[in-house]
Specification:
CATH architecture of the largest domain: 3-Layer(aba) Sandwich
Strand order of the largest sheet: 1-2-10-7-8-9
Strand content: 15-25%
Distance between the termini: 43 Å
Number of helices: 11
Number of strands: 10
Bound molecules: pyridoxal-5'-phosphate
Shape: globular
Oligomer: single chain
CATH topology of the largest domain: Rossmann fold
Helix content: 40-55%
Structural class: alpha/beta
């Protein structure tokens, strides 16, 4: 499968000595918050393949969906601008009175925004389908989080990159699971001796326990890799619902910021670190751990989050 370069790769893999000491493991941070496109994040890797696929199909309009503060939406808007395509974003909820966080960037990148009144996955995906029909042949609709086998190829390459950067394989890799596409790509390509812990932050209608292995198998097939044999480890730290702020994620944001000067976010990476802390305390995770920093910091400046994390 072809790819269009959109990300600054490879991203650094950094030791985090003060955070390691606080957690009681050796922690390395894979800095996919530094992929560069539109302030960075994991979706740049997926978009390299999705945009290439859209071009190969002769499409000229990307359609993405997500919550009001979707990082995937923001990065899709930037990717579309970069390759000269149009971008439509289907966003959960109602148009807010104040434009903050990722929404500011969606506007700056010139995307057309559609608010569907609800953050429900099915409503968002129905919104994408309806829009794709209205826009016709040039439209390239993507599921929430770009979670297709094509998108997940980005994390097949990330897995290879991580292995090449490490002198010895780690015991664990920890990642936030929103749509599960990142986890699926990693599962398709990391050596099975590296256990992957996915921290569920979204509780999708089809649960990750089903979604991720199915998508990993499709991704491995597309990448020409053997069927994934790694075990699925999941832990739910969503809180009451997708996007809700939990005290443990605020504590994790403060811990990473105050030990390493590292910015996490309240929706994804803060919950991932909170999940890792809980897994260490519970005795599941020990040894050397790679924390995949998937980005998300623009949400720190959004209404509803800025007040509670500061
Ligand atoms: C910052 C951030 N981290 C993690 C994720 C989760 O990635 P995935 O949807 O591939 O599970 C997303 C997107 O959903 C994200 O925006």
């Amino acid at each position: 499968m072809s790819r269009i370069p959109l990300a600054q790769l490879p991203t650094p893999l950094e030791e985090a000595p003060r955070l390691s000491e606080a957690l009681g493991v050796r922690l390395l941070v894979k800095r996919d918050d530094l992929t560069g496109l539109a302030l960075g994040g994991n979706k740049a890797r997926k978009l390299e393949h999705l945009v290439a696929d859209a071009c190969a199909q002769g499409c000229d309009t990307l359609i993405a969906a997500g919550g009001l503060q979707s990082n995937f939406a923001r990065m899709t808007a930037a990717a579309a601008a970069r390759v000269g395509m149009r971008c439509h974003l289907v966003l959960g909820g109602h148009a807010p009175e104040r434009v903050t966080g990722n929404l500011v960037l969606d506007h700056i990148f010139g995307a057309t925004l559609h608010f569907v009144g609800s953050g429900d996955w099915r409503v968002l995906e129905a919104g994408v389908e309806k829009l794709a029909q209205e826009l016709g042949r040039g439209a390239y609709p993507m599921p929430i989080g770009g979670a297709t086998a094509v998108g997940a190829l980005g994390y097949v390459h990330a897995a290879d990159e991580i292995v090449a950067q490490l002198p010895a394989l780690p015991d664990w890799l920890v990642v936030a699971d929103g749509s599960g596409g990142t986890h699926a790509g990693l599962l398709a390509a990391l050596p099975t001796s590296i256990k992957i812990l996915g921290i569920d932050v979204a509780r999708p209608p089809v649960p990750h326990r089903q979604r991720i292995p199915a998508l990993a198998a499709q991704t491995a097939q597309l990448a020409g890799r053997p069927l994934p044999g790694g075990e699925l480890h999941l832990s739910d730290h969503t809180g009451t619902k997708y996007g809700s702020v939990t005290q443990e994620s605020i504590d994790a944001i403060h811990l990473a910021a105050r030990t390493e000067g590292l910015l996490l976010d309240p929706v994804y990476s803060g919950k991932a670190l909170a999940g890792l802390r809980a897994a260490i305390r519970g005795g599941l995770v020990s040894g050397t751990v790679v924390f995949l920093h998937t980005g998300g910091a623009p949400a720190l400046f959004a209404d509803g989050y800025a007040e509670v994390v500061s």
